[in-house]
Amino acid sequence: DGGITQSPKYLFRKEGQNVTLSCEQNLNHDAMYWYRQDPGQGLRLIYYSQIVNDFQKGDIAEGYSVSREKKESFPLTVTSAQKNPTAFYLCASSWAGGADEQFFGPGTRLTVL
Amino acid sequence: QKEVEQNSGPLSVPEGAIASLNCTYSDRGSQSFFWYRQYSGKSPELIMSIYSNGDKEDGRFTAQLNKASQYVSLLIRDSQPSDSATYLCAVKTGGFKTIFGAGTRLFVKA
Fold it and tell me: Cys staple from A46: which of A6, A34, B8, B100, with CB 3.0 to 4.6 Å?
């Protein structure tokens, strides 16, 4: 089955810890995205990548890092520099260029203890 | 002014009625418009895309676009309790970015 997977579904972080969220897609999409969703707010773009080995900061990149070593994978690291990381994190992918319909993975809910 | 605005709701309609969801956007260069449905605790699911002025129908859903008024809407005919969700409007701006609205909560009463 084609799709986007994210793991883990739930993640708990202690203060000062870095954690990495996984995102994998087998849709052969070129572009991948990370969003953060807080209650009552729209999706905010953290990072995006249009091709392998290249990525760009979104609107709220501070305290986050990414890599894009493979076309199908786009992991997100939430560093200790992110002061308010508790949120629902969504990974999406799309064909680069054109209409850019984005398709989402199931999400990871991160909670800081 | 927010780039993509939606009424937060909740919008409450009886079962079988038409639900009308509205969205305005600020970037006149926007070319692509999307509606997503998001159930509580789940990720957004794409339900409609529209790129040119006018109406686009898919089953019980109709998307309407008016670029002159910078307005896009989603109509849901014969609303069902299973349609109760938050509906996100998304607009691909003249640049690369897709901007999401905060969503409208829809509640369909049985």
Answer: A34
Selected for mutation to probe chain B from A6, A38, A43 (highest B CB count within 10 Å) is: A43
Q: Which residues of B touch A105 (CB under 8 A)?
A: 43
pLDDT-derived band at A95 (thresholds 50, 70, 90) equals confident
pLDDT in tens, A70-94: 999 999 999 988 888 999 999 999 9
**Phi, psi for B82 (deg, rounded to 5):** -70, -10
How distant is the Cα of B5 from the closest Cα of chain A, in angstroms? 10
**Statement: residue B97 has pLDDT above 90:** no
* The predicted structure's pLDDT at residue A83: 86
Considering only CB atoms, which chain B residues are within 8 Å of A99?
32, 49, 51, 92
Nearest CB among A42, A48, A107 relative to B100 is that of A42
Whether B106 contacts B83, CB under 8 Å: yes
User: How far apart (Å, rounded) are the C-alpha atoms in residues A3 and A19?
Assistant: 24
